[in-house]
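Hi support team,

I'm filing this because I wasn't sure whether my run with arginine finished correctly. The job status page said complete, but I'd like someone to confirm that the output block is well-formed before I use it downstream. Pasting the exact inputs I used:
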Amino acid sequence: MKNKIFLFMLVLVMGILAACGTAADEGASSGSKTDEKAEQSKVLRVGTSADYAPFEYVDTAKSDEIIGFDIDLANLIADRLGYKLQFTNTDFNSLIPGLQADKFDFVIAGMTPTEDRDEVVDFSVAYYETEQYLVTPKDSDISSLKDLKGKVVGAQVSSIQEDLAKIFAEENGFTVESRNLIPEIIQELKNGRFQGAVIENIVAENYLAQNDDLTSFPIEVEDPDFKAVVFQEGSDLKAEFDEVIQALIDEGKIDELKKKWFVVEE
Ligand code: ARG
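And here is everything the job wrote out:
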């Protein structure tokens, strides 16, 4: 009997607690101005691959903070929409899987919309367009893709540059070797393992400015390399981001970011 009363009391107390919980929740979402604000400064988890100066990188001499064109852009967008951002640095080829596994709310990493990617994630409107370069050691006498016959050309794993390198490899008889990080590719160029590497112009120029043993020439590609913000498929963020990105383009804010971050002005 005692046990039964105890059980009854327990159930009663749990019931009251649950009811209190609901009441409290309802109170919190009753929609006053401050609540809306609190809800808006929601933290978004952002994935990036900080090996891509000047778009996203860490200036290790100064701090361990991720900085760059894309980071500024993400912060501008977040400010306008009232979000806070929390960045995670990971290899470029882990970014799309990270979105799919709900580790990130969005990715900004100089990523180019492609048909294959579009099947598993969503892209914002494009905020930037770049060209491709073939980077070579200065003493190599390589000035066209044809000169790379029988040589090794590097590219970043899972990048459109890797796809391009593979296409050019077939046409010009060289082999492609991929690395996870751009600095690894630069290293292989300097130590002679790679005789060339496909890297986009702005990133290449950034490395050339710091390595006078490297040089580059532009390569013709069919599809332009746009950059866009990347979302989980079906994400509500896309519509709000698109609107702000378009506004930032129209207001000349993207041009200001280019001036701030690019070594060589276009
Ligand atoms: N635009 C190229 C792509 O989407 C390369 C981007 C690499 N980005 C980076 N943060 N490493 O495949």
